[in-house]
Design goal:
The chain is an alpha+beta fold. It is globular. 47% of the residues are buried.
Length: 619
């Protein structure tokens, strides 16, 4: 659809000193150029024979596929010219069952590359707009996703690209996450109907007949991540039926449905052991993802690694003797690890921490909580600096269906090293605390959740050594929207300034401009604007821009297909019309988040400089 506003690279400012402060230096040992040079290792998969690992490595301007020996060694590139991709919105490269091929998505279509060496090629020369490849057991066919009839469909494509068979045809819902059965006769997938966007069912498709039946589903209940046991006798999946993210088991005929025990927290992901007797899983406990093992015969829960941080993406060795996984924390970037289950020996397979980063202090946050306007307890993470400068930042996560957890956050660590106290609230609507908490901002964007972010400032004012006049709020995506809301709708003017990265201000306009999937995402929370226009209007802070009294920094990528760049353009036009102080920068190469090193460094420098002037003390 053509854009209604012609967007071009832009830099504007009004009424603030957008020059470096000559009396402020980077924190000792830190450097923003060095920070943006860090590489991210992620999205790994162990080969079927257990000897190799494929993974994605985010370098300066690319997100290439690599492989390395499963016992450690030198990585070798497999993909060519795979564009930089947002790490939280990417796929895992898929090994063929015979270990000879890797499938992945790049350049808008599914690609395959021989693992033994050779150039990648599109799975089909004439097929564009495909994604999410899943191999059939014969290693000669793949299930892929396509958009047809206004919905995400599943199709079966031969390895040579010559034969395509569309498997699903319904236009009243999306079909996702296909998982072929071990015998290759059927596949499980997730069905999301458009008339109940809070519902996701687990369905089975018989490949011979094409018959589809719902195996599990309830109104307004999400179920996802279907995974076959190695013998095909069970399907495990995640469901919110009981008010939390639980693992459930069911037979393919629909019998023996039951949830697995959950010792608090919320399950995030899991993987079957090769013998089908246990699951490796990651359990979210207040933002820390513990690696565990669930013994199915007894229901016994065994913690394998409970170090604070995020354990993710467990892969079993083919004989069940080891697990590979990814781990990151607020003090270390993501890396790949291998855990021997009999001895507990841990091997770090990659090392993403350069010597300069190893030499500087990084801060592990403290879990805290505070009451909001209505008495609701808001969980948060507090980052205390070693040498406080008296100022504080409230860092608001995106989503809103997300969580600020114990992940690596490079720029936040930089600001803490500079002396800023940082509070990261998990406002109502955040995940990780049960379905009831997650749904508290349904129909109420910019209402209670905004108050939670304002009361974060009130909490900071109770801490010793902080100047209540030097508090800032910042965030990206929904966090940018929260920043806009808090500055436009706070009669107490709690924040001295705000930074909005690819945020929103007019919910109806953004709904109209964004992609089909993002329109549905918004409707999960607010319904269709034709039926609930009042919620969209009440949630749009662009109507209160005249009330803003504090300066703003607005940053947005022009290739953003989640929050359209027109959202920031309209916001800045309103600021300009009202004579407000702001700085505004757009980046022509950047999507929803800054993935290229040059624009990311520019954004980091602008954010630091902005805070230098409005928060950093004058000595």
């Amino acid at each position: 659809m053509p854009r209604t506003i012609q967007m071009v690279e832009k830099y504007e400012r009004n009424n603030w000193p957008s020059i470096p402060r000559p009396d402020v230096s980077p924190p000792p040992g830190w450097n923003l150029a060095a920070l943006t040079a860090l590489k991210r290792v992620r999205n790994h998969q162990l080969s079927p024979d257990g000897n190799r690992i494929s993974f994605i490595w985010d370098t300066d301007d690319l997100s290439e596929i690599y492989q390395l020996p499963a016992c450690g060694g030198w990585p070798q590139p497999l993909s060519v010219d795979r564009a930089a991709t947002l790490f939280w919105n990417d796929e895992i490269p898929q090994w063929s069952p015979d270990g000879t091929w890797l499938a992945y998505t790049a350049h808008g279509a599914v690609q395959i590359v021989p693992a033994a060496g050779g150039l990648p090629r599109p799975l089909s020369e004439i097929l564009t707009g495909s994604w999410s490849p899943r191999w059939m057991p014969d290693s000669r066919h793949l299930i892929i996703n396509l958009e047809r009839h206004g919905a995400d469909q599943l199709a079966l494509l031969s390895l040579d690209g010559a034969t395509l068979r569309q498997l699903t045809h319904r236009s009243d819902g999306d079909h996702w996450d296909a998982r072929p059965a071990p015998d290759g006769n059927s596949l499980a997938f997730v069905w999301r109907p458009f008339d109940d966007l809070n519902r996701m069912d687990i369905c089975l498709l018989d490949l011979a007949s094409g018959e589809i039946r719902s195996l599990y589903g309830h109104p307004k209940t999400r179920a996802w991540s279907p995974r076959w046991s190695p013998d095909g006798a069970w399907l495990a999946f995640l469901s919110q039926q009981n008010g939390h993210d639980d693992i459930w088991l069911i037979r393919p005929d629909g019998s023996s449905l039951h949830p697995l025990p959950r010792p608090g927290g919320e399950y995030v992901e899991f993987a079957w052991s090769p013998d089908g007797q246990s699951l490796a899983a990651c359990l979210n406990r207040a933002g820390s993802h513990e690696l565990c093992r669930i013994h199915l015969a007894t229901g016994e829960y065994q913690s394998l690694r409970s170090q604070p941080g995020l354990h993710s993406n467990p892969n079993w060795g083919p004989d069940g003797s080891f697990i590979t996984f990814e781990y990151e924390s607020p003090t270390c970037p993501p890396d790949l690890y291998r855990l021997q289950l009999d001895s507990g020996a841990l091997t770090r397979l990659t090392n993403s921490t350069p010597p300069w980063l190893a030499a500087v202090k990084r801060v592990m946050p403290q879990p805290v909580s505070y009451p909001s306007f209505d008495g609701l307890t808001i969980p948060a993470l507090l980052f205390p600096p070693e040498k406080p400068n008296g100022a504080a930042l409230v860092s608001v996560h995106g989503g809103p269906s997300a969580q600020y957890n114990l992940a690596w956050d490079d720029l936040l660590q930089y600001f803490v090293a500079k002396g800023y106290t940082v509070l990261a609230p998990n406002y109502r609507g955040s995940t990780g605390y049960g379905v009831e908490f997650e749904h508290l901002n349904y129909g109420d964007w910019g209402g209670g959740d905004q108050q939670d972010c304002l009361y974060a400032a009130d909490y900071l004012k109770t801490l010793p050594g902080l100047d209540p006049a030097r508090l800032a709020i910042l965030g990206g995506s929904y966090g940018g929207y929260m920043t806009n809301c808090c500055l436009a709708r706070d009669p107490l003017q709690r924040y001295a300034c705000g930074i909005s990265k690819y945020g929103d201000g007019d919910l109806v306009n953004s709904w109209a401009l964004c992609s089909r999937e993002l329109r549905y995402y918004t409707e999960i929370f607010l319904g269709h604007p034709a039926k609930n226009r009042a919620a969209y209007d009440l949630g749009s802070p662009i109507r209160q821009v005249a009330a803003i009294q504090k300066p703003m920094l607005i940053l947005h990528g022009l290739r953003d297909d989640i929050v359209p760049p027109e959202a920031s353009e309209a916001w800045v036009e309103a600021l300009k019309r009202e004579g407000k102080a702001y700085e505004y920068k757009t980046y022509p190469t950047e999507p929803h988040g800054f993935v290229h090193r040059g624009p990311r460094l520019d954004a980091y420098e602008r954010m630091e400089q902005f805070l230098d002037w409005f928060l950093f003390p004058f000595s």
